[in-house]
């Protein structure tokens, strides 16, 4: 039982620190780990080979490991939420900046090409010749 518990902790640590894994796969691995720990706790309750004192120590160890895994899951979920919020704000800022640039280009009276940048190139050439000739 102790070997399984130690392996579980090692697996949780590697799942939470894997740089190539996505947050979703890390959470899935931790949830699987949590299920394994829960099963170990059930198996321990049925185990008659351990003394009551040893059984209690094992239960406490498994419960602490389960709490640790749950905290890791919560931390990953919070990080994913923060990352999504940051991406959303960055996207909104970029969209707003693009709209501001377009509005400025269309309203600049000194630039005869303002607001006409997407028009036919032949028409733009005529505007440039008339203005700058």
UniProtKB/TrEMBL annotation:
Residues 1-27, 66-133 are annotated as: Disordered. It holds the Pfam family FlxA. It comes from the Bacteria. InterPro entries: FlxA. Residues 82-100, 114-123 have a biased composition (Basic and acidic residues). This is FlxA-like protein.
């Amino acid at each position: 039982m102790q070997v399984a518990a130690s392996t579980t902790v090692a697996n949780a640590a590697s799942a939470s620190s894997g740089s190539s894994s996505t947050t979703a796969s890390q959470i899935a691995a931790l949830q699987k780990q949590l299920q394994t720990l829960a099963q170990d706790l059930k198996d321990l309750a049925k185990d008659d080979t351990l003394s009551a004192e040893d059984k209690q120590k094992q239960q406490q160890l498994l419960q602490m490991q389960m709490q640790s895994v749950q905290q890791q899951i919560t931390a990953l979920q919070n990080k994913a939420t923060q990352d999504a919020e940051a991406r959303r704000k960055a996207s909104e800022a970029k969209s707003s900046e693009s709209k501001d640039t377009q509005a400025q280009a269309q309203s600049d009276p000194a630039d005869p090409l303002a607001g006409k940048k997407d028009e036919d190139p032949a028409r733009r050439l005529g505007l440039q010749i008339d203005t700058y000739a």
